[in-house]
Amino acid sequence: MGREELAVDPVPLARRLLGCVLEARGDDGVVRVRLAEVEAYRGLDDPASHCYRGRTARNEVMWGPAGHLYVYFVYGMHFCANIVGLSDGEPGAVLLRAGEVVEGRELAASRRPTARGGGAVAKGPAVLTSVLGIDRSHNGVDLTDAGSPVRLLAGRPVPSDRIHAGPRVGVAAAMDVPWRFWIAGSPAVSTYRRGGRARTRVRRP
DNA sequence: TGATGGATTAGCT
DNA sequence: GCTAATCCATCAG
């Protein structure tokens, strides 16, 4: 997929990414995932975006050129991957939430032995990254470069009536914007969880 | 400089 | 439905 196709507003970009294939090559083999669920995060206007509070070392990649991978670490143990959209100076990205494993199922299953679906689905953003073997070292990778370990490939287009939209998962801010998109009926789509205050934090004595 | 809580997941009740 | 696991960016003091 070319950079021009990706250098657009993250909301239409999110729709376009459904059905596309993300390929990750590692020492142990190749895994390909067909994207089934994504969410748009629109920089400066969006209180839920990592860019909302300005440019920092963590979100640096989002200010860079489109078509690069933004990887961040959450909850002390998980990675999430985004595809950067728009062009220089205009931050925005699409969070990759889930997909179907279309190649390298065994490898995917071995990387995530406890995941449901026997390696056929990557249901949830952190499952997706671990199945693909994506971690901090992949932050900033150019998805449009044939030599990159992670690449974005065009897939079968998804008919627009199969694309559904709704509120983003686990996000407290801007719950009214339907910037989560998924392929209706896909077994990979994650179950919706409302955002809000963190679940009760029990402090050990 | 210390506290807080998150674009989460899996396992248990 | 509830909670532990566990790093680090951000914010309050």
Automatic annotation (TrEMBL):
<dbReference type="InterPro" id="IPR003180">
    <property type="entry name" value="MPG"/>
</dbReference>
<dbReference type="GO" id="GO:0003677">
    <property type="term" value="F:DNA binding"/>
</dbReference>
<dbReference type="Pfam" id="PF02245">
    <property type="entry name" value="Pur_DNA_glyco"/>
</dbReference>
<dbReference type="GO" id="GO:0006284">
    <property type="term" value="P:base-excision repair"/>
</dbReference>
<keyword id="KW-0227">DNA damage</keyword>
<dbReference type="GO" id="GO:0003905">
    <property type="term" value="F:alkylbase DNA N-glycosylase activity"/>
</dbReference>
<keyword id="KW-0378">Hydrolase</keyword>
<keyword id="KW-0326">Glycosidase</keyword>
<dbReference type="InterPro" id="IPR036995">
    <property type="entry name" value="MPG_sf"/>
</dbReference>
<comment type="similarity">
    <text>Belongs to the DNA glycosylase MPG family.</text>
</comment>
<keyword id="KW-0234">DNA repair</keyword>
<dbReference type="InterPro" id="IPR011034">
    <property type="entry name" value="Formyl_transferase-like_C_sf"/>
</dbReference>
<protein>
    <recommendedName>
        <fullName>Putative 3-methyladenine DNA glycosylase</fullName>
        <ecNumber>3.2.2.-</ecNumber>
    </recommendedName>
</protein>
